[in-house]
């Protein structure tokens, strides 16, 4: 079976703003099969943003479960993330899902994985996907050397740099800020 690779997702918290962005590429083997995949979703009337990398069907399953947890815990993002991570790790069906998620609200950014991790980055930069290390390196440099940029500008520029380097990332970039 040919492995489907796709995407770079990045979230940056900077100067009181949180922005999340993703490219639009999905690749099967050595072929780009789609260039405009929408990998960001708004939840809770735009108060929470999510981005995903990995299997699309798996990501949508996790997104639905995360939204259920948000509703069950009154919109408390961190609690919903922890409860989803517990289920993801222990449920026989969910533990087979191959995807990662970034979730963000106006105060914090979290990375969720199938190993039960709920990680809050120390530096206000979270990345997942094939080009994540390129985007993270770029955002780290921008935060250090161009602090006058907004979080949205940092996300956009970091994704552009990742797209220049990573063959699984393209320049079809979507960026959202968290309200």
UniProtKB/TrEMBL annotation:
GO terms for biological process: proteolysis. GO terms for molecular function: peptidase activity. Pfam families: Proteasome. Na(+) binds at residues 163, 166, 169. Keywords: Allosteric enzyme, Cytoplasm, Hydrolase, Metal-binding, Protease, Sodium, Threonine protease. Its EC number is 3.4.25.2. It is found in: Cytoplasm. Its main location: cytoplasm. The active site is at 7. It is an enzyme of class 3 (hydrolase). It catalyses: ATP-dependent cleavage of peptide bonds with broad specificity. The keyword Cytoplasm applies. Protease subunit of a proteasome-like degradation complex believed to be a general protein degrading machinery. This is ATP-dependent protease subunit HslV. The lineage of its organism: Bacteria, Pseudomonadati, Bacteroidota, Cytophagia, Cytophagales. The gene is hslV.
């Amino acid at each position: 079976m040919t492995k489907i690779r796709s995407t770079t997702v990045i979230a940056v918290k900077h100067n009181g703003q949180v922005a999340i962005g993703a490219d639009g590429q999905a690749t099967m083997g050595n072929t780009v099969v789609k260039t405009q995949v929408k990998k960001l979703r708004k939840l809770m009337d735009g108060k929470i943003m999510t981005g995903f990398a990995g299997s699309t069907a798996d990501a949508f399953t996790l997104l639905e479960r995360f939204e259920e947890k948000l509703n069950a815990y009154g919109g408390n993002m961190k609690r919903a993330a922890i409860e989803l991570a517990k289920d993801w790790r222990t449920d026989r069906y969910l533990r087979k899902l191959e995807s990662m998620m970034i979730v963000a609200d106006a105060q914090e950014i979290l990375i969720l994985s199938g190993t039960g991790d709920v990680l809050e980055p120390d530096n206000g930069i979270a990345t997942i996907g094939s080009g994540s290390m390129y985007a993270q390196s770029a955002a780290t440099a921008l935060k250090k050397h161009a602090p006058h940029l907004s979080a949205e500008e940092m996300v956009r520029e970091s994704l552009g740099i990742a797209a220049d380097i990573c063959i699984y990332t393209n320049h079809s970039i979507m960026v959202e800020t968290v309200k």
